[in-house]
Design brief:
The protein is mainly α. It has a domain at 13-48. It contains 2 helices and no strands. The chain has helices spanning 13-32, 38-48. Helix 1 runs antiparallel to helix 2 (38-48). The relative contact order is 0.11.
Length: 65
């Protein structure tokens, strides 16, 4: 896979939390082993700062505001 290839994941609030917790647990395990966590830190920060995209809601007829 080329270095400049990007991946986009769509996940809900709960899935996002699972990913953050898993990355943090992995980071803590590596710290306990005395290993460097630079790349894990980068990915964790990207996951924390990931933008949200709200889904557009279609208006149903008769549901005018």
């Amino acid at each position: 896979m080329p270095d400049d290839e990007k991946r986009i994941l769509e996940m809900d609030y709960h899935e996002h939390g699972v990913v953050l917790n898993a990355l943090n647990d992995y980071r803590n395990d590596k710290l306990a082993e005395g290993m460097t966590t630079d790349i894990i830190d980068e990915v964790l920060l990207k996951a924390i700062d990931a933008p949200t995209r709200h889904q557009k809601r279609r208006r149903v007829r008769g549901d005018e505001r």
